[in-house]
Amino acid sequence: MAVRVGNLGGIFSGLTDSRARVGDASLKLHIVSPPAWLALPLWFVSGWLRIARFNPFFHCVEASSFRCRPVGAAPVHTQVDGEWSGALPFETSVAPHSLRVLLPGK
Prior knowledge:
Blueprint: E1 2-3, E2 27-32, H1 36-48, E3 58-63, E4 65-68, E5 77-80, E6 83-87, E7 90-93
Antiparallel strand pairs: 1-2, 2-3, 4-7, 5-6
């Protein structure tokens, strides 16, 4: 998971780096190592308890871009903001100063 926010809220609270900000020039790239049946539940629990640094299956790095490639022949689907975006290979990068927030007038 790649994020530039410090808290996703709800059941995802605690899963991101609280120091992340929307204006950051880099992404916080959260990497969970196999086996998924153990690593994913442990990622949630250690995040909720704020002890992710002790999780041996979890690593967080800063990156301005990253690329994911399939290891096997089976298609691996990707999501962006919870929505299906295609399949691997997948590449993303940060476009500095490109976020625009529109708010309704009063």
